[in-house]
Design a protein that fits this description.
By secondary structure, the chain is α+β, with helices and mostly antiparallel strands. It contains 15 helices and 17 strands. Strands 8, 9, 10, 12, 14 and 17 form a six-stranded mixed sheet that branches. The chain has a four-stranded antiparallel sheet with strand order 13-11-15-16, with no helix packed on it. The protein is elongated. Bound molecules: iron/sulfur cluster (2 copies). The site of one iron/sulfur cluster has 15 residues, from α12 and α13.
Amino acid sequence: MPRTISLPVIEAKKPQTPAASPLMKPEGRVLATLEDDGRRRWLRPKPSPGAWWRRRVVVAWALIALYTVVPWIKVAGMPMVLLDVVDRKFVFFGSVFRPTETLLFGVLFLSVFTGFFLLTALFGRVWCGWACPQTVYMEFVYRPIERAFLGRGYTSTKHAVSAWRHVAMYAAFLVVSAHLANTLLAWFVGADRLTDWIFASSPAKHPAAFAVFAGVTLLMMFDFAFFREQLCSLVCPYGRFQSALLDRDSLVVGYDRKRGEPRGRKDRHVHADGACEGKCGCDGRGGCGSGGGCDGAHEQKRGDCVDCKMCVQTCPAGIDIRDGMQLECIACTQCIDACDSVMTKLGRPTGLVRYTSQASLEDAPVRGPRKRVRARLVVYPAMLAVLLGVATFLLATRESAAVSVLRTQGTPYVLREAGTDREIVESFVRMRIDNRTRDPKVYLVTGGDGVQLVREERVEVAGDASREIDVLVTSKPSSFDRGRRDVTLHVDEQGGASKTFHGHAATAVIGPLVIRPLATEGSAR
Ligand code: SF4
Ligand code: SF4
């Protein structure tokens, strides 16, 4: 008889949606821009046009104007600022700097970082809320455009908007993004060159620049139309450094929990279960509501926060300032304006949400005003002063030209008349001369002490330009120590007025390691 084997029946499990699975459900909101089920939570903050908002409008439009016009401003015939990465040339206020000035750039770079540290220790994320291009353009250009096209009810998810309004809004975004991309390009290639590319010749003749322009426009569209506030919380490293850069006395936008809590609209008669033992006429479980013959012994007064959530609705980061300091907060002050207007309407003092410090919020009224002298407020300014002092010194002693030795390419030396008593070594030194003035200059390259050149080099270098040359140094083989010989070459500006350049470049040339009769090393001609 054939045996029958009964197999256990495996029932297909129903796929569980993240929302249905208790394991998958997050305990709280993971990100302000994510719904619990992982979908994007679109933020449509309601503007709160209070006193801080008006100040920010002035600052924002001044910065936008600055960003737009700086590439067009000339100082002594040169762009005020030009960051020409392709030609490795940076112009600031009419002076040309090249990446070879590493010490100066290093010091300036450190100064900027230290300045940011100091600014953050003093004023918290004032850069984020007031001056960062992301915030400035998002809050004062793109969001106003959005509000204008989507209408007054745009903050509501139920607000129906016709398709053409969306199309028109994205078209406006595209125009602004193209303008932004053009302006950005002008910072890097110069306004004159950009104008020439656009109007005098076809953009098709400059495909690389056009590709950069198109790419930056799309990037702006992606950022300001879609990615938005997520850039601050997910991408920008500055937000992540917050905890290290802020201390308890740094200026932050904060909610006065002591004054605001317990939040609610009306004072309520509340007490712990059984606390009143029914003496007030309630059932002793806190269920009596207000009144009812209560003697008020258990009455709990509400704080000043009426829980209107205006501060939440206006927040461009999508957070609730009443939950404490959060990474996403960019200190934009919109919640201050929103809350102040509510407090004013209720006839209560403003400042429930205000510029303050963590220490003041936690310790007040014991602690009093913000502590102004702190270790980092001594260390950062001291560092900044030293760095700016060094930068000033480097700028003040900056020469009109610079000489540097580059890596030699090809054969490092040639042995001539090898095996004879007239044997000499010709070594190559590759030099670069940077003319930092606007005028063309002629420089004479000569040998230093004991250094013979095959010929002295006269080098012409155009204004604000660099030139690389090969200098041929002749030496006796015996002058090399283990295949190396230290040489110094002198570069002197020819003619010109009083302040002519005299510089030198020290390097080591390569020569033969071992000299054998009738034998050559390197290549002999
Ligand atoms: S919490 Fe207040 S200050 Fe912070 S981002 Fe939101 S509105 Fe701006
Ligand atoms: S705006 Fe002021 S009163 Fe209203 S919820 Fe926010 S903190 Fe409370």
